[in-house]
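Shipment paperwork, digital attachment
Item: protein structure file
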Amino acid sequence: MAHRNQKRKGTELPYIVHPFGVMTIASEATDNEDILIACLFHDILEDVPDEYSKDQMEQDFGKKVVSIVEGVTKDSSLASWQDRADAYLDHLEHEASDESVIVSCADKIHNLMSILEDYKEVGDDIWQRFSTGKKGQQWWYRAVYEVIAKRLPELTLNRQLFNLVDQLVALKD
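Attachment content:
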């Protein structure tokens, strides 16, 4: 319900396909119910907190799920995209739980799958969807991969994330 009024960036797809995709990807690496629920909720506190509050999420699903979601929520109080990205990377590397790192990995895999698939359809026009353009997206996904690989080197999803980042970086100007 929280994402009912959203569409995936630059598409007409209902946003809900993303959280379900993230959960499906994470289920390849874990059967932990709290992690899988957090996958479904991973964007709520960042994107639509008025639709489903932290307090309601905690009441319905517990502190652990909220903690995992908070571990992948960018700090909206920071003014610039770069500041938010840097803070996210620092948090992911030094403070986030392993559960949050798994959710982040699955999220980035799904985002990259979508970006690369949409790139086949619209080509370089896809970069207009992002305030940072192609170079910024390439930097972002490589940086997240490096943190995840450092934090959880044995995570089975790392190879898939690496391959997708490699495909993104290979897109030339």
